[in-house]
């Protein structure tokens, strides 16, 4: 039977001998985070709501998992289960959260659950908590000047979130504010990552909400695109950002994790170039107003920690390929004349006409 050290690549031992916990380990982002932590030599406790559920099997198949990954049952609304999972760990990555705009499903686990996580972390003597927040806690503010880059000092306006019934942004904002409050009260070291919409290959066996953002344009279910813009980031970069802010001793505050912003029309045009065989919408639902200009988010704080970001074009390509490989999206025949003009080796969005 291999020893723990034997399963860790020699050049990647920053986590060797260190035990951390990842909440919601089976989710889209958390699965990549667990993979990255195992690559770096960490011993990982992953919390899931049902360790026996085959939907978590992909975690057990990760390199290093046999020796250094334990899956534990925990629910965000069950503080005792969190304390049991965190005991003996040096750090927590709190990624678990519903991802929905249904207030019934979202508000309690996100807000109360994050408080329970923070309290359990303080009670168990955790050194640092990395919380997976969201850009939704940052940009939802009608008074923000759209020409100014959005940075870590910006906060969403709760009244505006409520008025627009954006319960996901509302709950994540209150959850993040609550996390900072408990951190201050209990003297807990908290660092926050605020990703924009996350895409890239899936490790888990089901389609998550952010992947569906692209999927709906490929299946024909969306006949038009909305007049809106969105920022994107690759899931591997999100996982890497979590590890970087955990390992950098002087990391503090909030880290916006974003690559670039596209109008939905640009997104559809890129998808059409890459995968012309799918029925991707060509028309905007709003034929009256000019295209909405999206916010630009600065990722400078993560660049300062040495990060580079996968270009959005590559990210979209890998997302669709992954959906095909996992059988979630049918592979359609391509007509030679329709072959994409661009290939995934082209890495700059500027190459898209
Ligand atoms: N994907 C994005 O574009 C994006 C962008 C910004 C921020 N985020 C944040 O990133 C985190 C992960 O998102 P994701 O996209 O990876 O979502 P996901 O694939 O849906 O994963 C969410 C995870 O949360 C767990 N969970 C939900 N409710 C729970 C509860 N009451 N107790 C314990 N676990 C619970 C789920 O566990 P089960 O498997 O048991 O359901 C699941 O593993 C979330 O905090 C989300 O707000 C995501």
TrEMBL record:
The lineage of its organism: Eukaryota, Viridiplantae, Streptophyta, Embryophyta, Tracheophyta. Keywords: Disulfide bond, NADP, Oxidoreductase. InterPro entries: Epimerase_deHydtase, NAD(P)-bd_dom_sf, NAD(P)_dehydrat-like. One of its GO terms (molecular function) is oxidoreductase activity, acting on the CH-OH group of donors, NAD or NADP as acceptor. It comes from Paspalum vaginatum. Its EC number is 1.2.1.44. It comes from the Eukaryota. Residues 332-353 are annotated as: Disordered. This is cinnamoyl-CoA reductase. Pathway: Aromatic compound metabolism; phenylpropanoid biosynthesis.
